[in-house]
Design brief:
Elements lengths: L1 E3 L5 H10 L9 H25 L8 E10 L3 E11 L2 E8 L4 E5 L2 E6 L2 E5 L2 H18 L7 E7 L5 E4 L4 H6 E3 L3 H11 L7 H14 L7 H4 L22 E3 L2 E3 L6 E2 L3 H10 L4 E2 L1 H8 L4 H11 L3 E2 L6 E3 L6
Parallel strand pairs: 1-2, 4-8, 5-9, 8-10
Antiparallel strand pairs: 2-3, 3-4, 5-6, 6-7, 11-12, 12-13, 14-16, 15-16
Helix pairs in contact: 1-2, 9-10
Amino acid sequence: MFVKNLKVPIILQKAEALEKRIPQNHPSISDLKSFIKNLRSGYNGERRINYYLNQIPPQRFYIFHDLRLQYGDNAYFQIDVLLLSSKGIFMLDGKNHSGKLTIDPNQMTQEYEEKRVIYENPISQANRHNLLLSYFLEKYKIPSVPIKSLVVICKSSTELVISPGYTEATKKVCRISDLLKKLDGLYHHYNRELLDNKTLEKIKKLLLKKHTPLNTDLYEKFKILKSEVVTGVQCPMCFSFSMEYHRKIWKCPACKFVSQDAYLNAVKDYFLLGNSSFTNMELRSFLHLPSSRITTYTMSLLNFPYTGTTKGRIYHQPKDFL
């Protein structure tokens, strides 16, 4: 069963909100687009893995997507997918690269569109995560349990080459079409149950409690000033800024598209861009609303939680709004 479902990462949503609201000639736009491309690729790889995980008997595993756990004082390790069972823990690391991948003991090389990029050997990374997870569980007095990892090549069109004689990689790297067979083999390798229900529940709660989402300051990372962010409601048809409010509808001056709720995406962007609350004046400024009265009406449609009196009222981001 899925305990922590796959969702679009918040850091990806934040990056995409920022990318569409800074000038396209900004010095950092190229780096930001590359950052988004990598995050989107990783998420799409996990979606492909998730498709196959949905076909596993639900009673076999507790499944967690995107776990980020702390080790040491200020360091973290990321697990794409963790499968917890009474027989052990299995971790999946998705690789959604295109072109040709060559894995040897020292590195992984990608060749695509006449480019050659070198990455860390994913087997080394998986082995390190196995060790870190065992340290993590030991810290919280969890009994020793087998931990196994697989590196999953998520694109069927990717050419995979494993160096001759590199048997560890041959065992631990699989194509996504072979994922269920590999997991079934790992599961049945252990012929007895090692963790009782009480311990499984303890581990499940521990992983959820200690998960720490990545929260990168994108303004600092990409040297973007908040004053450079474009405000207003983006047209969902032609993507231009900024739609104008006229008697309960939003109209695009560029393509004349009309919408009643286009402002909702702008409110979402407002929170993704690093804000957690707004006043009447702040929302009016961001959405380019013509008056305080109309802003009050718009806020009543949102029905967000708030604190304070009428004049000093502050509206807060609902827990599940993003």
